Amino acid sequence: MGQLLCKHQDQEGYGLSYDLWKGFPAHEILVLQDRNVGIGFFDDFLKVGNTSLYDGYIRVQTGSGTVAQVASIADTVAGDKKGARGICRLLTGAADLDEAIIGYGAGLDAPFKLVTGDLCFECRVAWSNITVDAHGQFVGLGELGTGVTLKVLDNADPPVICNDYDLIGFQRLQGETSALDAMYQVGGQTKVDGAVNTNLDTLHTIVITEYVKLGFRFRAGTNSLHWFINGVEQADAKLGTAVLAAATFPNDNFMTPVAANVNDGTAACNFDMDWWACAQET
User: Fold this and answer.
1) Number of folded domains in the chain?
2) Which of 47, 142, 244, 269 is the most exposed place for a label (fewest CB within 10 A)?
C-alpha cells in the first residue's frame, strides 16, 4: 500500500494522500483489483476517449468552446504545475452556460454507496480563472443522472448546484471567487454547504493555476465522513453519526465520481484534473 501513497502532506505530494488512505487496502483494490477486498479505480488521465461511453466515462460538452478530454502537461519545473502529466481538462468557452462534465461509469453505472465498507475519494485539481460571477465547479460523487447537461449546476443566473440528484463533494459557487466549500445533498432537499453548516465553509482558498488535492473518507465503523485538503484532515468539518443518519444525507443511492465546470460569463475557464481515485471496501 505504501507505494501508492505520497510521502508529503503539502502541495509537493503528487499522489494519494497518506492520512486520507492510511489503513485502507488501496494496493489490493486499486492495483490488484481484488474483488474480495473491494472495488475502485485510479485514473491519471493518460488517455480519455473522445466520445461518450469510451474508456468508461460519460462526457457532456455544451456550448461552442467546451472540452472534456485529456490534455498534455509535462512540467517538471518546481512550481504550481509540477508533477502533472496527462490531465483531464474541463474547459468552458466564452459563452453563457458553456458546460463541461465528466462522469465515471459512462452514465450507466454508479458503484459506490456510503452505507457499508470504508470509502475513499481524492483528486488533484487546478483552476485557470476564479473571477467572481464567471464560473462554477463541482467535483466529488454524484448519483446517476448528474452526467447530463445542467444537472450538476443548473441554468439559474448565476448557476447554482442543481437540486435534482444526490451529491457529495466540493463546490466553487458562481457568486464567489476563491472560496471552496464542502457540500452534500439529497436530491429534492435543501443542499448542505458552508451557508448551512459553517464548518463546511471555505475549506480551501483557491489560487489560480495552483494544484490542490481534495478528498473525503467515509468510515463505516464509526458512520462518519472526514474531509481532507492536501492530505490534511479538516477536523472541524467532520460529519458524525447523527448527520449521516439524517434524511438530508445522501446514503440511499449509489453514486459515482463526477466533475463539472459551468460558465456564466464571457471568459473561458480551465478546470484541470491531474488525477482522481475512488475505492470502497466490500
Assistant:
1) 1
2) 47
Rounded to two decimals, the pTM is 0.92
- CATH code at 104? 2.60.120.200
Task: Answer yes or no: are the C-beta atoms of 266 and 94 closer than 8 Å.
Answer: yes
Q: 19 is written with which cell numbers?
A: 492520512
Q: What is the DSSP letter of 246?
A: S
| pLDDT higher at 96 or 30 | 30
CA pair distance 67, 75, nearest whole angstrom: 21
CA distance 45 to 67: 14
Residue pair 7/16 in contact (Cβ under 8 Å)? The answer is no
Residue with cell 473518507: 217
- Look up the domain containing 211 and give its range: 40-281
- Take residue 135 and report the three cell numbers written for it: 464560473
Query: What CA–CA distances, in Å, run from 49 to 54, 55, 72, 109, 163?
Result: 5, 6, 14, 17, 29
Decide if 216 contacts 209 (C-beta within 8 A).
no
Q: Is the pLDDT score of 149 beyond 50?
A: yes
